[in-house]
Structures are given as C-alpha cells and as structure tokens.
Specification:
single chain; about 50 residues; two-stranded antiparallel sheet; 2 strands; about 35% strand; elongated
Length: about 50
C-alpha cells in the first residue's frame, strides 16, 4: 500500500541487509531480506550536524 503524507518526502532512506540461511553443509539455501526505514533518524542526524 502506498500512502502520500502531506509534508513528507517521497524519498526514504532504508537500511537493507541480507542474512544467509545455510544447511548442514554450510551451503546457502535461502537469503532472508531485512529492511528498515531510517528516514527520520537520518533527518535528525543531519539537523544535529548542522547545529
């Protein structure tokens, strides 16, 4: 679902990673994706750097 929020940018900063899941022989059989929206954190960090 895509929701437009007044005052918010359409561009977000996302921290993304892939975690390998291995079998008993250490062969990668699955990659587990993980993403977290860090837009607010990044905006606060940039404001602190400017101050």
């Amino acid at each position: 679902m895509f929701v437009l929020t007044p005052g918010r940018s359409l561009v977000s900063s996302v921290n993304f990673s892939l975690k390998p899941f291995t079998d008993e022989t250490s062969k990668v059989v699955l990659l587990i994706p993980k993403g977290r929206d860090i837009t607010d954190f990044k905006q606060v960090w940039e404001a602190l750097e400017k101050s």
